[in-house]
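Meet today's protein:

…
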Amino acid sequence: MTRIPKYLAVVAVTAAVAGTPALSYAAAQGTAAHGPVTRTVPLKTVVKTTKRAGARKTAPTPRAVAPGEHVVAAPGFEVWLTPEGKYWKSPFMDEPGFRSVVDGNIDLNTPGVSMQAEVGDGHACLSGIYAGGRTTASRVVVETKAGIVRGRLVQLAGEHRWGAWYATSDASTSDPDFVTQVTVYDTKGKVYARLKP
């Protein structure tokens, strides 16, 4: 019994002097004929394991959709894109809405974000277009009087000049100033475009 602690102390001192990290453990008495089992973990393996454990996740990018593909944001709330612009339908609308990206009202070369909102029955259906950023859009944060809402981004497959965002929120009011700010961030966490209605 006294031989195992002495052996472990020798391994620890040897590893410290050699500058090599060592992982040592003793086998249960009677299982190893030649004393404790010792395993050395090379420094490179330890570093690689540490890097993997602390690896940073890749920032999300907009969901790629086909022209006319409907994305269901919530029951009765849908968004779809065509090369001409964004369509949306909410439970509070009789007909789908449309926002053009080809009529000259949106400059696809200047960073910007728009917003359309329908409020009713204590809920808000929010959507808009983002365009003109120099980087890749990653996420959208909508600030409302009820709190922060995180939305989603969609983009036509192969289109990098513009896309659409959508979100839902609780809304106990029909106040037109319910939304106080919409911010689209890029994959580096910087502001892609911001709207203060």
The two ends are 76 Å apart (CA to CA). The chain is about 15% helix and 40% strand. Residues 3-53 form one domain. Helices lie at 3-18, 43-53.
